[in-house]
Amino acid sequence: MKYLIQHPRQLAPLLKALRAQADLSQAQVAAKLGVTHQAISALERHPEKATFDRLMRFLGALNVDIVLQPRSQQEGSRSRSAPVEW
């Protein structure tokens, strides 16, 4: 299944759901990655504060990939010339 993320707030519940879907506890993911349970909890609560490397390692432990693709005009998204919010 594909998930469209347009704002960092959308990521936290999705990360928890993906972990649950993989049938892994926070402790199990932590053990796989060699980090503490608290580190996984913090990443799930505030993924916008995590480094990209940590996020990628977390997703790798869940067997999840990130796919980047251009926005399509037909999907009702902003035009490509729209400014990117920083």
TrEMBL record:
PROSITE patterns: HTH_CROC1 (PS50943). Signal peptide: none annotated. InterPro entries: Cro/C1-type_HTH, Lambda_DNA-bd_dom_sf. It holds the Pfam family HTH_3. Residues 15-69 form the HTH cro/C1-type domain. This is Helix-turn-helix domain-containing protein.
